[in-house]
# Entry
Amino acid sequence: MLDKIKKKSNYKILDYIIPLVLLIILSQTLDIPKKFYKVISVKYDNRLVNYYGYCSKEGYGFIKDLKKKYNFKFNPIIINYSVYPSPYWIISDTYKKQNIDNIILINYPNNYNLAFNKISKNKFISINQIEHSTGIESINFELPDSNQKYFNTKINIYKKNFKENKYLKSFKIENLYKKKISIPVNFFSEELNERLNSFIIEVENNNTEIEKIYFSMFNKYDIKKMKILENTGNCYYVKK
Amino acid sequence: MLKNEILIIVLQNFYFVSLFVFPKIIKNKNINFSFFDQISINIIIILNILLFFSFLNISYYILFISTLLISITYLFLNFEYYKSHLLSINFIIFFLLNLILSLDIAYGLTFDWDTKSFWYQKVLNFYQNQPINNLSNLPVADWPHLSSFVWSFFWKFPFNSHEYLGRLFFSFFYLVSIFSISELINKNLSVRASFSIILVLLTYKYDFFSGEADIFIFSILIFITKIFYFLFNEKKPQIKIFFIILILLSFNLLMWIKLEGIVYASILIFISLFFKNINFKHKLIMANFFIIMIIIKFYLINYLGLNINSKWFEFNQTLNLDLKVLFNKILILLKYFLYYSFNLPIYTLLFISLIIIYKQVKIITEYEKFLLYSAFLNIIFLVVAFLFKTDDIELQIKSSLKMFMLNSSGVYIATIILVFNRINFLSKK
# Structure
């Protein structure tokens, strides 16, 4: 009789123990004790700032503080110079109209450059993304030491594509040979604003081993031409 | 002292229990629904009600109060029934699991790319009391709105606190569907509860709850496979009709959650046409009502100015069959499919289950055949959907294949469970 009761109670205890052990394993796998502590010890808004940055990453803290301070009656334009999803989720009010004169700029670059890495002797590929330019201000080369007097070359710019690269523009470069050359081109085009695809530069007629190429870009939102209302680090709230 | 946030999370889960557990909407003595089936059915019906109200520009406060009052009334009327179920090991484990996942979501907080860019703006639209036709002013107006509406509803009610409270419903529904399908295991409650936890261990990732609608599709597909199980094993036509209504209600939700929901529903209807377990009249009802639902959907989105953008279908690429490009795409797709199959353990388990079925099981039931055909057609759909997309499919695959594979895997869980039952059966012998 006792054995029977023992067996029964063992079975019942086991019935509870196995799922509970699995629950503990799951809690450990998901690191729940640490997360529990974080949720009770760090405020909701601070956790969001930790994830999305104050004036870095998506500029969550900066944008939220502006909303609190200015209590916008409109949706300002928000531009993030780093590649992130559309930032409007942070403060968008779906019933308000957008005001294109009020602009929030996040991760505003001091030098707005499209840089290239060398992939073969005469071929370069872009290594960053530019989304808010109006064109190329100048093309910059870094060259090795040499006795050459002149630097003559032609570069062809392509947008990288799955099937075949799309030709965009060519530039003929003629200049005195220097270690660093900057050629103003003032080429206005928005075709270089690209979030996904890279750009390719092919160099023609070139006897010189080019070390580095980068484009200085025109910034669509030049803060020098706007009224700065708020500024923290590289984040700005400006009015046109 | 616990901070408010934890208290709110617990209370939000109590609210889900009161809303989805207490009403006994379906009372039929001839059908032996389990407790979790009953909750799933309540969810399906209440979500259809929410869908209906999402088109009306009324205050949802009335809806919240009335559903809450109905739930509490049910609780008092059937107190003894609920007491026994709420204190069962299965439900206790379910509730604890819910709190664990809720905490994980409350800590995770982050949205994925598409949620930030598209889904969350739809959520804000409803949260900020804007009418449904205002969606036409937001990005991807043609993406279905139900998951966003549900998110905003449970964000606002009852506590109107943090956004993630709305997403806790997704984890609640996900767990209900897992506990419900685990009841297909021929073992006691404890084994079923343990199996449910293992399924959660295998399928749960915070990313799936970061605002995309795929986990919603996953949960509904699990529910549909369970109802098809009842449908295949039921003899009485009047009860079969009841199951068909439930399936149609679930299809209706699928259509309003994501566009591919229409395809999943079509696949299941198409396959069911080949099975004798469903008589001709019932097949006709199912197919016709499904077509009517599609017509209503397209009429409504047209009326609201939320027309489907043809750019998603990329007909030019679809009709442009370059064999070399196609072969290249197949290789890329295969590479990522295998990669994500190991990343999503349900796929690994599905492949193991298929091998076991092939090697060990001699007689396959009609329901098992139904599941196998569904799995097969789902995978075909997945391949076709990506193969005929834009030229640079690698980018698309990287951003969406995993979620695509996750949402359709809801159909495969029942297959895995039935194979698990077979292994038990074989070992007994």
